[in-house]
TrEMBL record:
Membrane topology annotation: Single-pass type II membrane protein
Protein family per UniProt: Belongs to the glycosyltransferase 31 family.
Name of the protein in question: Hexosyltransferase
Main location: Golgi
InterPro entries per record: Glyco_trans_31 (IPR002659)
Glycosyltransferase keyword on record: yes
Pfam families: Galactosyl_T
Ribosomal protein listed as a keyword: no
Location in the cell: Golgi apparatus membrane
Protein's GO biological process: lipid metabolic process; protein O-linked glycosylation
Length: 369
């Protein structure tokens, strides 16, 4: 009897630890999904109603007639005669042709998912070098997938780049149902993302989906390059917004952002800029932990088949991972569970490793001082 009781206690101890382990691994995401849900919005503010009405009546024919005013290369025919379900717009640096080539050969080479059309285009500004501009012209002739704004592609102009992107979408690709804005260092799981968006067909409007950044404070340090003066933004916190690394908006939200942007300063960071515009339009961000933000999720084939995004630094790594994902069979429920568990644990360990390295570097600097 004593032996049986002991075994029972041991099993209870083991099961409780297994349960605790899973809560630690997956509980944070579940808590995020619950607490970061936006409450239902009622559009009673007259300014919000005005933005939404202006967006509904928006006419972009003037820009179409004066296309050279805002774009060096417009790719204005890229969406013509196509019913596009998801338009992926990839922010890229003019000099980074190797990364664009890697993206074209991997996740952006899909044109259809379950018979729904997917289109990927690259967004960039003007380079500082005329030689790079000539290379871009050759690249455009070969691939026909570049949109180049008439502004210098610099860190200070990334918010302007975002606005020009929105402007291009509602002018030349107004039939695209959803728009994915992402950055070139990201891996995007288009099939899984499309499957998710297909489930939103009953509520296809006011979609602003990504990894939520809640209650971020503006940078008030005048010595910092990202300094935001009080006269440009006076609130203590930014409104909740989706990380600019990757987010999805519906076509109507693109129009609302464009209308609301007239009263929002371009000095703000790109993600914050979009978040403020959507708030002015009465659109709440939708959080999903399947967006990684800037984090690199440690690779596992079945994990990457479930998540929407991950940061991938090197082109070679992106090509290897995509080849394994494309050649591999579908994952069973058990394989998906193991994959998510594996990549979650390894990603957490990577995070602790980076924290340790940063702490060591800080200690070294203090010692040197």
């Amino acid at each position: 009897m004593v032996f049986c009781r002991l075994r029972t206690h041991q099993w209870c101890f083991i099961l409780s630890n297994v349960l605790l382990f899973h809560l630690l691994i997956f509980g944070a995401d579940l808590m995020e999904e619950y607490f970061l849900r936006a409450l239902p919005t009622s559009y009673t503010d007259m300014k919000v109603l005005e933005v939404r009405e202006q967006a509904r009546k928006l006419d972009m024919s003037t820009l179409k007639a004066n296309i050279s005013r805002a774009y060096v290369v417009s790719s204005s025919e890229a969406c013509s005669d196509k019913e596009i379900f998801l338009l992926a717009l990839i922010f890229t640096s003019p000099e980074n042709s190797l990364r664009r080539s890697a993206i074209r050969g991997t996740w952006a080479n899909l044109t259809h998912v379950r018979d729904y059309t997917v289109l990927a285009l690259f967004l960039l500004g003007k380079p500082s070098s005329e030689a790079t501009q000539q290379e871009l012209i050759k690249e455009m002739k070969q691939h026909q997938d570049l949109i180049q704004g008439d502004f210098l592609d610099s860190p200070e102009n990334q918010t302007l780049k975002t606005l020009r992107t929105i402007e291009w979408v509602i002018t030349f690709c107004s039939q695209a149902r959803f728009i994915l804005k992402t950055e070139e260092e990201m891996f995007i799981n288009l099939p899984t993302l499309v499957e998710y968006l297909l489930n939103l067909r009953n509520h296809p409007e006011d979609i602003y989906l990504g990894r939520l950044v809640p209650q971020e404070t503006p940078n008030r340090d005048p010595q910092s390059h990202s300094y935001i003066p009080l006269h440009k933004y006076s609130e203590m916190y930014y409104p909740d917004y989706c990380s600019a690394t990757a987010f999805v908006i519906s076509q109507d939200v693109a129009r609302k952002i464009y209308v609301a942007s007239k009263e929002v300063p371009l000095i703000l960071p790109p993600g914050v800029f979009v978040g403020i515009c959507t708030k002015k339009a009465g659109v709440d961000p939708i959080h999903s932990s399947r967006f990684s933000g800037r984090r690199h999720i440690r690779y596992n084939r079945c994990c990457y088949k479930f998540i929407f995004t991950s940061s991938v630094a090197r082109e070679g790594q992106l090509l290897r991972e995509w080849e394994e994902m494309s050649n591999g069979k579908d994952c069973t429920l058990l394989e998906t569970y193991y994959g998510l568990l594996s990549c979650r644990v390894m990603t957490y360990l990577d995070g602790f490793k980076h924290l340790s390295v940063d702490a060591l570097q800080n200690e070294t600097l203090r010692a040197a001082d």
